[in-house]
């Protein structure tokens, strides 16, 4: 046997996984859902959104960047951690302009789905209503900065055959925003444009000339909470 | 024991939340057995005639009349509930929050496609009777204290019914997954 397997515990449940796997993936293999907004399987983790915070042997750690080790005791579905997650989600809702009723991603949005999961009725923070641009200059994609949560999924995941990224951050601090390489994006295929929209956890990247295709009631999170496909 | 008194108002909303209340269908007969209505567009009572137990507020505050009505509700109702996305976060009217009020008025009365040829004198409504627009649209809880929040655009009839009966009967509100939606 070439791979080393380790035993660890999540919320009292005995789990087993390959040594060195990130907690979030190891948990998934064991039927435990750890929510995230910035992590996506197959990409190098970023630890940006902190939604996946868990207690590892009593200390808060991001499950997407912490490898699992033998004997780890992980706490996931506990009041302290769920409180942290709900606070982050509420902060994200007031920090941008998230008008769910007019957003095409509504019903399939991961931020919204997590807010549903944690039963957010109203964010506890005052709304900031920041002034942000909608950029529709690209032939295939609409970029709506009002909804962007700066998770970097598009930067990390949408690349051409030479592994060059179509997206990048520009500006700094609270002004930071997603920029698109127009020269590359002008030649973007329809398939990659669709992948860009799908990789975005919110409605910040939308493909042009097609919208609201899935009727209410058939969208991703209309009937079952996010993570239902993982939880056993 | 007398029945609890219910009042409702639509501020900067579209009346969709009131419509959703009617989606409780035949349970409306049950509702009038459970509560008496006071000031509400449903019975067209314009002014409070007595203190109320529950006030349902649809829509946020986009003008000074909305603020006046909301404060009047706070004064008269023991429990105030924000109903729908507009009451909770401003909703679609709050899309104007990034623009100066003058831009909105000019677009509506001077430069919009339906007005630019029809209003050669450039008249803007400014009668003293008209409410004055606020600098932006405010969620209700940023104007007065709100006690409960029922999200949705509009909130599901089951959520409204569940919340109302829980409040009237003093039970804890159950929130199954499918009743909390923001669209």
Account of the protein in words:
- The complex is a heterodimer of chains A (232) and B (183).
- Chain A is an alpha+beta fold and 232 residues long.
- Chain A folds into two domains: 6-77, Ubiquitin-like (UB roll) (Roll); 85-207, Alpha-Beta Plaits (2-Layer Sandwich), CATH 3.30.70.20.
- Chain A is built from six helices and ten strands; from the N terminus they run ββαβββααββαββααβ.
- Chain A has helices at residues 23-29, 79-95, 110-117, 153-157, 182-185, 190-199; strands at residues 5-10, 13-18, 53-56, 59-62, 73-75, 134-135, 141-144, 167-170, 177-180, 205-207.
- A five-stranded mixed beta sheet of chain A has the order 2-1-5-3-4, with helices on both faces. In chain A, strands 6-7-10 form a three-stranded antiparallel beta sheet. In chain A, strands 8-9 form a two-stranded antiparallel sheet.
- The longest helix of chain A has 17 residues, at 79-95.
- Chain A is globular and about 50 Å long.
- Chain A starts with a strand and ends in a 25-residue tail after the last strand.
- The model of chain A has no long low-confidence stretch (mean pLDDT 95).
- By secondary structure, chain B is of the alpha/beta class.
- Chain B has a single domain, classed as Rossmann fold (3-Layer(aba) Sandwich).
- Chain B is 31% helix and 19% strand.
- A five-stranded parallel beta sheet of chain B has the order 2-1-3-5-7, sandwiched between helices. Chain B has a two-stranded antiparallel ribbon with strand order 4-6.
- The mean pLDDT of chain B is 95.
- The chains are: A alpha+beta (232), B alpha/beta (183).
- Chain A binds chain B through residues 93, 97, 99-103, 106-107, 112, 115-116, 119-123, 126-127, 129-132, 216, 222-225, and chain B through 82, 85, 88-92, 94-95, 97-98, 136, 139, 141-142, 148-151, 153, 175, 177-178, 180-183.
């Amino acid at each position: 046997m070439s791979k080393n397997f380790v035993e660890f515990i999540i919320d009292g449940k005995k789990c087993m996984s390959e040594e060195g796997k990130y907690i979030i993936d190891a948990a998934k293999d064991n039927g435990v859902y750890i929510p995230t907004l910035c992590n996506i399987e197959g990409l190098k983790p970023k630890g940006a959104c902190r939604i996946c915070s868990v207690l590892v042997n009593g200390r808060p750690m991001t499950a997407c960047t912490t490898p699992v080790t033998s004997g780890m005791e992980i706490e996931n579905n506990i009041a302290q951690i769920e409180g942290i997650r709900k606070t982050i989600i509420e902060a994200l809702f007031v920090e941008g302009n998230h008008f769910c009723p007019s957003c095409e991603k509504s019903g399939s949005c991961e931020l919204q789905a997590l807010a549903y999961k944690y039963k957010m009725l109203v964010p506890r923070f005052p709304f900031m209503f920041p002034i942000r641009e909608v950029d529709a200059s690209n032939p295939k994609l609409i970029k709506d900065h009002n909804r962007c949560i700066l998770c970097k999924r598009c930067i990390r995941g949408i690349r051409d055959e030479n592994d060059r990224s179509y997206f990048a951050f520009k500006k700094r601090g609270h002004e930071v925003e997603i920029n698109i390489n127009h020269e590359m994006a002008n030649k973007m295929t329809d398939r990659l444009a669709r992948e860009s929209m799908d990789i975005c956890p919110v409605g910040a990247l939308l493909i042009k000339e097609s919208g609201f295709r899935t009727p209410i009631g058939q969208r991703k999170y209309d009937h079952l909470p996010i993570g239902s496909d993982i939880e056993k | 024991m007398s029945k609890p008194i219910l009042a409702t108002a639509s501020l900067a909303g579209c009346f969709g939340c009131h419509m959703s209340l009617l989606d409780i269908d035949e349970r409306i007969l049950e509702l009038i057995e459970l509560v008496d209505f006071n000031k509400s567009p449903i019975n067209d009572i314009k002014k409070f005639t007595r203190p109320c137990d529950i006030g349902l507020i649809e829509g946020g505050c986009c003008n000074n009349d909305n603020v006046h009505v909301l404060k009047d509700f706070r004064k008269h109702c023991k429990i105030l509930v924000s109903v729908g996305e507009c009451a909770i976060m401003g909703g679609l009217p709050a899309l104007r929050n990034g623009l100066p009020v003058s831009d909105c008025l000019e677009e509506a009365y001077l430069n919009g496609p339906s007005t630019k040829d029809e209003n050669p004198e450039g008249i803007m409504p400014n009668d003293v009777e008209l409410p004055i627009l606020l600098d932006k649209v405010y969620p209700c809880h940023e104007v007065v204290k709100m006690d409960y929040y029922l999200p949705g655009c509009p909130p599901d009839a089951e959520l409204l019914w569940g919340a109302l009966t829980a409040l009237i009967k003093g039970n804890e509100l159950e929130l199954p997954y499918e009743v909390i939606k923001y669209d």
